[in-house]
Amino acid sequence: xxxxxxxxxxxxxxxxxxxxxxxxxxxxxxxxxxxxxxxxxxxxxxxxxxxxxxxxxxxxxxxxxxxxxxxxxxxxxxxxxxxxxxxxxxxxxxxxxxxxxxxxxxxxxxxxxxxxxxxxxxxxxxxxxxxxxxxxxxxxxxxxxxxxxxxxxxxxxxxxxxxxxxxxxxxxxxxx
Length: 176
Description:
about 50% helix; 3 strands; single chain; disordered N terminus; three-stranded antiparallel β-sheet
């Protein structure tokens, strides 16, 4: 989860740890997916539960790398030229704003310069790998389960609310 959506983005609480610390609290729910744990905490918040006492803990984390495509010189150079072109157009636009009566020349110079630098830098970066990483991938940190912990003073109430949520979703699913 990104910092933009964490508690620190919305409150100015001084009690949040600044260094990595072990989570504290009693378990009030356990879920197979982060989405399930998030739904549980959202349910608690919807029922005016003091969610500042709640922590979601990913148990047994693992790094999953999903390979998206094979990487070739053509793909590397096309990507470098494309990103360089966008940056060059941006620079050319800035130059044309500050150069009166220049016409399209600053845009053209920026575009060509951006493509040239994009090609050069992408080629150097790919050549530096020496064929050791000829694929594109995305990495993701996932856990085998997600526990919802709550401080002891409110754990019993949180457990009761989550039990009601589990009963409601269990009856909503078709019986097979």
